[in-house]
Amino acid sequence: MENFYLVKVKWSEHRERLKPFIDEIGLKADDPQLYTNIDKACSNEWAFLFLAPDGFIVLQPRYQRQIIYIDITAAHFTAGNALNKYLSPLITLAKQGNAQFIRFYTVRKSADKVAPKYGWEKQGYHRNLAIWRYKL
């Protein structure tokens, strides 16, 4: 089995190259400020960029009501099956941060079929986005 990995990198060195991908995600999610918000969060080290051989993911640690969790604020992979391929390293990173769960929002209807196969639970909706959670 192939070993998939995520490598933390400096946002400032990749921000311009990733902007079109994040803008596209923002367009699909009806969030025109997505890139601006990610740029601010990563520039201030409130969120962090991780690269993979076939894409990237932006993770933002959160703390709410004495619960630590990780938000996937943006992700883009080209090779497919990313939810399965990168779940293990994502869990490792989240556990290192003492997170209780990982969360992402998506407009993609395909998540309804794929996410539950890998242990993700749908928590509801926010606007047109489904909210998915993986409990650690």
**Total helical elements:** 5
Q: What letter string, H or E per element, gives the SSE order? A: EHHEEEHHEHEE
The overall average pLDDT, rounded, is 94
Which value, in Å, is the CA radius of gyration? 14 Å
Instruction: Report the portion of residues in β strands.
Output: 35-45%
- Give the class from helix and strand content and strand pairing: alpha+beta
Please describe the biggest sheet, giving its number of strands, its sense, and whether it closes into a barrel: 7 strands, mixed
Helix content: 25-40%
Total beta strands:
7
**Basic shape:** globular
Spatial strand arrangement across the major sheet = 1-2-3-4-5-7-6
Unreliably modeled segments: none
What is the first-to-last residue Cα distance? 23 Å
